[in-house]
Amino acid sequence: xxxxxxxxGVSLARTAAASPSTAARLVAARPHASEAExxxxxxxxxxxxxxxxxxxxxxxxxxxxxxxxxDFQIDLKECGPMVLDALIKIKNEMDPSLTFRRSCREGIxxxxxxxxxxxNGLACLTKIPESSAGPxxxxxxxxxxxxxxxxxxxxxxxxxxxxxxxKKDRAKLDGMYECILCACCSTSCPSYWWNPExxxxxxxxxxxxx
Length: 210
What we know:
29% of the residues lie in helices and 13% in strands. It is of the alpha+beta class and 210 residues long. The protein has a five-stranded mixed beta sheet, with helices on one face. The chain starts with a helix and ends with a helix. The relative contact order is 0.10.
């Protein structure tokens, strides 16, 4: 009986030696698995900069017949997310002669209306496209004079006197006061381009009604 058990044990040992275990077969099938698990794979280093090119319309009053596009490169990692942030950075750090209008930075005043990549909009509400999208072109609103004027043609009837408004008159503005008179709509209208003297545009009509 003992000799039988001994022979059986020897037979099992020889079989195990001849047949590799499941773990051994896995290692043989994946020769690099143990090495990859033993070593930590370091992630690829992210780029430290993200450069974006802005092509900005420039006009020199000393040479008005030759406007041009000037390129500026901004690292988006060191700039705010909006187009106005990039313009402010360019003016403060690269070219102080760059001139544009701005005020509230919250889409309320309409001062920073301009044409961005072919579409009229507010620079403070327009996000900077990714650098992979190519250069961003910024130009003034189309078909309007670059030199603005806000001078009255006639003096006020009662200078220095505040114009009072009743609650009833104020209620008439509901539905119209949301317009911030940025002129993006008017400068997008072909009728305004072709006949500015005859068709004043939606912004002017709304302002007159107000």
